[in-house]
Amino acid sequence: MIENCIEEGRGCHRIVHLSFSTNHRARSAGQTSAEARFFVRRTQKGIVVSRTHHPSETDGCWRLGFHDSANRPEGKYMYGISEAVLSVFDIDRACAPLVQAAGYGRTDLPDCPPEQMLAWHVPAGCTRIEQTLLTPPHDSRGRIRVVKFHGVDQDLIRPSQRIWDSGGIFDLDVFSSDARALYRRLQREHGWSAFGEPVDYVMGEFDVTQVVATGPDGLNLAIIQPHRPPSFPLPSLDPMSRVFNSTQLVRDFDAAMGFYQDILGWKPLMAMDIDDSVEPGADVLGLPMPYAQHCKRRVGIVHPTGSNDGSIELIEIADMQGRDYADRAIAPNVGLLTMRLNMPSPAAYAQEIVARGGVLYTAPIRLEIAPFGMIEMFSIRAPDGAILEFVADIGDQDTA
């Protein structure tokens, strides 16, 4: 849900601009409010954040953003998010809004092979896994694979979808050329809703509209519309971009960050506590007042190499108690089931994870992933149940 992280300044003191700050702007009323900024100090123990309320100009600027093909970091992690896998009750119902409103292309595929059932630990009795691939209009990655399990009982992974309920994968983040128009079309033609009405806010160099839209089968889309180009390249966003980020709502923020940094070896883009501050528009996430003002939120973004194209956002709503659905975040249950991340050598990375004390959910195997052929992959579950699959080369040519 955080659109980006921007750090200004030089040396060890930097300023981070975040969409959870109070720099909301209500365009219709013509109102503005002061930016909320955060001083960041990098130490041997990690990132230390403190807040200041007065804006100040800096003479240097360093930005974290999307890597274009000429500046992609070297290493084992290459292409951001390959796919999100969405388990549904009805494939046609799930696909229609993403095809008709978001412009994604639909490719119906052969059923998943038996090896996929093993990799997902599908219980006995499942007769088939039907699947369809939804591809963004101008990209080959950031796709959504829609699957339906036949012959088995299913529960929704996150049945209540409250922001203070933990467990599983909460949302997928996308850009759009017109967030309001896309949301209204999802609403009118496909029965979608949202955690709050679309809001406008200014965040550092960003001037955006955002809405977290909710569809059937536990699919939430954080739709973000930039109103002026940032200083780094964005994916194509007309009418909706590829998936570039995903959010997990966690029980224990420190444990979740420790898993991604110490077990997976990922890098934090930011990590901070937010309190005494409403989110943009006070209702993007649907936190009711007065809790939206005083509720402590712990927020972090992690990524294998330090970009936010293919990042994971972690949020703990520390001062509100909800239900935990981590145990439900498995096949064949319905909702966002896995995130697939591309890298050249999954088996080698799996060995690194095990050496750091990680426990694999599925050991490295080769299986058919249509339409890309035989693919090497393995998976691991995060502390709050989200399944991460690391796969080798499944059609992720760079088009950004």
Automatic annotation (TrEMBL):
<dbReference type="InterPro" id="IPR037523">
    <property type="entry name" value="VOC_core"/>
</dbReference>
<dbReference type="InterPro" id="IPR029068">
    <property type="entry name" value="Glyas_Bleomycin-R_OHBP_Dase"/>
</dbReference>
<protein>
    <recommendedName>
        <fullName>VOC domain-containing protein</fullName>
    </recommendedName>
</protein>
<feature type="domain" description="VOC">
    <location>
        <begin position="242"/>
        <end position="393"/>
    </location>
</feature>
